[in-house]
Amino acid sequence: MHLDPRTKLYMIFVVSAVVLMTATTPFLWGVRILMTMVPITLLFIEKRYASAIRFLIFYGIALALTFFCLSEESTGLLTAILIGYCGIVVQFLPAMITAWYVVRTTMIGEFMSAMQKMHVPDGITISLAVVMRFFPTIKEEYMSIRDAMKMRGITFGGGNAIKMVEFRMIPLLFSCVNIGDELSAAAITRGLGGKVRRTSVVELKLHVQDILMILFFTASAVVFIVSKYFL
After folding, report:
1. Contact by Cβ (8 Å): 12, 39
2. Which of 124, 113, 134, 127 is nearest to 180 (CA)?
3. Helix, strand, coil proportions of the chain in percent (round to 5)?
4. CA distances (Å), origin 201, targets 23, 25, 78, 109, 110
5. Which of 16, 82, 188, 219 could be joined to 95 by an S-S link, Cβ 3.0–4.6 Å?
6. Is 23 helix (H, G, I), strand (E, B) or coil?
7. Are 145 and 172 in contact (CB under 8 A)?
8. What is the value of pTM for the model shown?
């Protein structure tokens, strides 16, 4: 189920707008949960099973703890910490899940072509394109550093916690700087930001699934806003 990048960006916009508004009734919670399940389902369809399962478990536990803690009348420091932590997770995780789906399933060429069709300035487009490649590259770099440290016997256990921080985080910070410079240089090398209009081999077109997805998120946002502020 391949979606147009413009549809994915619209999903991020709608979900981010909805999560900024608090859900005060079970119906509003249901609408928000339904919207959150869509990107998780799309991750399953894209065969990103590990990410989908992690998000599903994490979001489910946060929801369960939120409803459990709020329904209890007990007080205490631990309860307050759980309520605050789970509230933040439940509030902002839907937008993070949607953004993660967009980043992991969108090719840079498709993204650039979509931004060009929407007449977005090159400065914004290039910055977003670099950010989209930055985080996955950082993850790969961290995995490589972690494997190298495991080969040297530097792990959480065995009294090597300080060495773990020193030998993993410092190389990762230097890698972040180098990766940012390399991605910026790669963007310039490919002609991004030049005076000549950039062409693309990617032909974008809204299909039936894109229209259905846009209608679903639009209807969900309208129902959420009307139910919250006008009913």
Report:
1. no
2. 134
3. 75, 0, 25
4. 43, 47, 55, 8, 9
5. 16
6. coil
7. yes
8. 0.79
DSSP string covering 54-120: HHHHHHHHHHHHHHHHHH----SHHHHHHHHHHHHHHHHHHHHHHHHHHHHH--HHHHHHHHHHTT-
From CA 122, how far away is CA 44, in angstroms rounded? 33
Which contacts (CB < 8 Å, 24+ apart) does range 109-113 have?
Answer: 109/200, 109/201, 109/202, 110/5, 110/202, 110/204, 111/5, 112/192, 112/198, 112/200, 113/5, 113/200, 113/202, 113/204
Q: Which two tokens stand for residue 149?
A: 């440290």
pLDDT in the model for residue 155: 66
Residue entry with tokens 């969108």: 106
Q: Which of 208, 146, 199, 153 is nearest to 175 (CA)?
A: 146
Instruction: For residues 219 and 211, give the distance between their C-alpha atoms in angstroms, rounded to a whole number.
Output: 12
67: Cα within 13 Å, side-chain hemisphere: 10
Measured at the CA of 81, the angle between CA 77 and CA 87, to 5 degrees, comes to: 145
Amino acid symbol at 94: P
Choose among 147, 20, 146: nearest CA to 88.
20
- Give per-10-residue mean pLDDT for the chain (231 aa): 88 91 87 92 91 91 78 65 80 90 86 84 79 79 83 65 74 80 73 67 84 94 91 77
Residue by residue, DSSP assigns 26-51 as: HHHHHHHHHHHHHHHHHHHHTT-HHH
